[in-house]
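Methods, example record. To illustrate the input and output format used throughout this study, we show the complete record for Cell wall-associated polypeptide CWBP200. The sequence lines were provided to the predictor; the line carrying structure tokens was produced by it.
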Amino acid sequence: MLGFLAPKWTDEWSASLTSQDNRLHFTDSEGVVLYYRLPQDGIFRGAVNSRQAHYRLTGNLRDGVSVFDRRSQQTQLFSPAGKGVWLLSAVFDNYGNRINFIRTNGLLTEVRHSDGYTLTLAWQQSQLMSIDLVTPQRQRLVSCHYDSNDFLAECDTFQFSHLWHEYTSEGFMTRWRDTDKTCVDIRYDPQGRAVSTLSTEGYFDDRFIYNDDEKCTTYLDAEGGETRYWYNEDGLVTRSTDPLGREEITVWNNARLQSRTDALGRTTAYRYNREGEIIQVTLPGGYSLYYDYNENGQLARLTTPGDQVWQWDYDDKGSMVCLIDPQGRKQQFSYSEQGDLLARVLPGGSHLALAP
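The corresponding predicted structure is encoded as:
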């Protein structure tokens, strides 16, 4: 994993596409890698990976591939950046809000927002040194420093805090501290898995024990409580016991949760549509919740026990404009040209106006 900050870091700007062995690999903002089979004609037509079905791939390898996220209603555009590599070049929504990512010699050097904001990124020997806001007025936002192994050792940000990091020679973080005098130490096993965390203030004092033969991980908290997790071949938890001995069983099908049974034997079951969206939740006692969606994957109708129905309506930009509760009471919403919520009309006619 290689984000623009350093190895083993990930970030939203480092999402990318790469082609390997007749498959396209999509690395999202969380560092998750999804595989898509390359079409024979090189054109994607709404390609889906069932493990993360909210992503839709369209476009072609020559001109660029777009990834639409049905959850956020935003689209990422990836442009060719060398043999078998496509880097993030833009993010936009249905309102025309857009962020463009400008690269120089393969490095991200400028970020431009359609609202007029521009960021510049300064590099030294392929290491990010700083991020500045240059319009509407210049301001230093981020400063970075690195250790002798090229790992991010210090990061000072305007919006958040000043952080320091230490690593093993392999790049595993062994300590982080901040300006609030919080200091956390992390230890690892030979496989690179965290086995303990400890802070000087005592907020973190955790241990992890791994049993690969049983596919079980034991977590020991600061108070001596023991929680155990058993997992399947995909790393998904199938059984757990808490410090009081209560057991929970979970059943999966291709990364989709099918059911969860608690210590009292009460089972909650889940059904999905072809898009991977939950359409029914069966609760203990036999009651069910039913979900319906529009063509863009947005929740349009919820039916709860007793045939209580909630309804949502959206405009052509994907913003919710109306919510009707089971009693027929209606709430309405209006937005600016950029998609900012401007007003909300409550049942009974009360009007709430929000500053743009």
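Annotations derived from this record:
The longest strand covers residues 85-93.
DSSP finds no helices and 33 strands in the chain.
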